[in-house]
């Protein structure tokens, strides 16, 4: 019995020794590479207070970084495209390309700061008064102390949203567009600020989709995930409308359209059924379309 116990003890010693050898093989010999990548001051990828980089790979400041945090400017985030930024800010993507002198709209860098409101000589929305006499595309000097702290963007120079829901907009304002329903089907989903940024209208494949007001096509394509074949119309400096999940698009970018004009055919692209998803965006933010559309009989 003593010999058997001694053999078992030797066996456990062997197992323990093997475990120690294995641990020695798997224990890192130094810090993981990621721990050596902390940026130093002035290096590529140095983050700003927002967590976005402020320099490119060579350490050069990113385009427009001097305007970071100023009203009327937007810092590019991961996954952004010029078209997506244009939709979110209520602008035409080609205007953003022009205002920022972008050579290639498909190549923007995370952390790059873009102008997203029109530059207006003499009354800039996001530029200090010191450069009021400069050309419209001039970029203000960094840190100018003369910039008003609460100067609103140009797009916000429209009447404030103070009218009660369901009331008629004042004639002669950007609110007065004479909206019509973009489709005649049954309403299957209403506006929900958290879940549904517009209205969902039922129909059959090929049913007409109409422009809800006079405007200009600022987007026509399938490049925005979740919307399928999408049309976006710009009506004025305040309002955009979006028409998603179409089967066929009948208009092109930059084309002027009239209220009631057939702009698409209803479909189910990037959707679980045939429907029109319709949004109204006021100064880039989704609002309840039922506040603006006429009551149905």
TrEMBL record:
Ranges for region Disordered: 28-64, 135-175
Compositional bias annotation for Low complexity: 135-171
Domain LysM: 72-116
Cross-referenced SUPFAM superfamilies: Duplicated hybrid motif
GO cellular component: cell division site; cell outer membrane
Gene3D superfamilies membership: Glucose Permease (Domain IIA), LysM domain
Molecular function terms from GO: metalloendopeptidase activity
Chain segments annotated as transmembrane: none
Pfam short name (any one): Peptidase_M23
Compositional bias per record (Polar residues), positions renumbered to this chain: 40-57
InterPro entries hit by this protein: Cell_wall_metabolism_enzyme (IPR050570), Dup_hybrid_motif (IPR011055), LysM (IPR018392), LysM_dom_sf (IPR036779), M23ase_b-sheet_dom (IPR016047), TAT_signal (IPR006311)
Protein family: Belongs to the E.coli NlpD/Haemophilus LppB family.
Protein name (database record): Peptidase
Phylogenetic lineage: Bacteria, Pseudomonadati, Pseudomonadota, Betaproteobacteria, Burkholderiales
């Amino acid at each position: 019995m003593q010999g058997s116990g001694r053999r078992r003890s030797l066996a456990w010693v062997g197992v323990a020794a093997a475990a120690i050898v294995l641990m020695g093989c798997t224990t890192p010999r130094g810090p993981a590479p990621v721990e050596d990548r902390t940026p130093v001051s002035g290096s590529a990828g140095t983050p700003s207070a927002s967590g976005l980089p402020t320099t490119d790979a060579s350490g050069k400041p990113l385009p427009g970084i001097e305007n970071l945090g100023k009203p009327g400017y937007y810092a590019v985030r991961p996954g952004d495209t010029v078209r997506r930024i244009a939709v979110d800010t209520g602008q035409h993507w080609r205007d953003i390309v022009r205002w920022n002198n972008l050579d290639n709209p498909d190549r923007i860098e995370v952390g790059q700061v873009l102008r997203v409101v029109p530059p207006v000589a003499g009354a800039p929305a996001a530029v200090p008064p010191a450069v009021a006499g400069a050309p419209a595309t001039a970029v203000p000097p960094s840190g100018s102390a003369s910039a008003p702290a609460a100067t609103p963007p140009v797009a916000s120079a429209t009447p404030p949203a103070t009218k009660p829901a369901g009331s008629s907009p004042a004639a002669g304002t950007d609110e007065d567009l004479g909206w019509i329903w973009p489709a005649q089907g049954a309403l299957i989903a209403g506006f929900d600020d958290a879940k549904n940024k517009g209205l969902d209208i039922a129909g059959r494949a090929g049913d007409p989709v109409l422009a809800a007001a006079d405007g200009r096509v600022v987007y026509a394509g399938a490049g925005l995930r979740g919307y399928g074949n999408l049309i976006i119309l710009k009506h004025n400096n305040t309002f955009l409308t979006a028409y998603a999940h179409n089967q066929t698009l009948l208009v092109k970018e930059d084309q002027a359209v009239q209220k009631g004009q057939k702009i698409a055919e209803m479909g189910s692209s990037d959707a679980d059924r045939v429907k029109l998803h319709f949004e109204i965006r006021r100064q880039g933010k989704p609002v309840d379309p039922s506040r603006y559309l006429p009551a149905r009989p």
